[in-house]
Amino acid sequence: MVARVQNNGLARITAALIALSWWLQWGTGTGAAASANVVTTTSTTEARSSATATQQTTTVTSDTMRLVATITELSAGPVAITEVGAFDAVGTGSPPTGGNMDIYGDFSAINVSSGDSIQFTINTKFT
Asked: What are phi and psi of 6, to 5 degrees?
């Protein structure tokens, strides 16, 4: 038997997830989103940024978790950002390592220079 999560169950899932701590980290990798991606950050030194998590409605009430965080470029030169990951730990080191990446997204390059910031919004819809 395959069961389907009901609408109220979707809201309970997102409520449980937004109660957790989340951190976002950007990267410069080139991989398409897959189930086992890693954020490649060989040329960036930014720490992970704490994300604000909220419930959103896409199709049914509270079926989507939204993570929002702003990351500021600290490197000396320009960097082409092409991916972002949501982690369950702040990580250590430069670039940060540790914790698990639970959500990954890739996109066309966004060029940033030292002092530039990007506010990421990640919407994860459950069905």
From this structure: -85, 165
Tokens found for residue 69: 């965080």
Reduced to 3 states (helix: H, G, I; strand: E, B; else coil), residue 16 is: helix
The Cβ of residue 75 has, within 10 Å, a number of other Cβ atoms equal to 13
**Tens digit of pLDDT for each residue in 43-81?**
456 789 999 999 999 999 999 999 999 998 887 678 889
Q: Are 71 and 49 in contact (CB under 8 A)?
A: yes
Strands of the sheet containing 64-72, edge to edge, are 52-56, 64-72, 117-125
pLDDT digits 0-9 by tens, 18-46: 999 999 998 887 766 666 656 665 545 67
Bridge partner residues of 123 (DSSP): 66
Question: How many degrees, rounded to 5, is the angle at CA 4 between CA 86 and CA 66?
Answer: 25
Q: How far is CA 14 from CA 19, 38, 87, 90, in A?
A: 9, 23, 16, 21
Distance CA 121, CA 86 (A): 11
Taken in order 5, 10, 12, 14, is the CA torsion positive or negative? positive
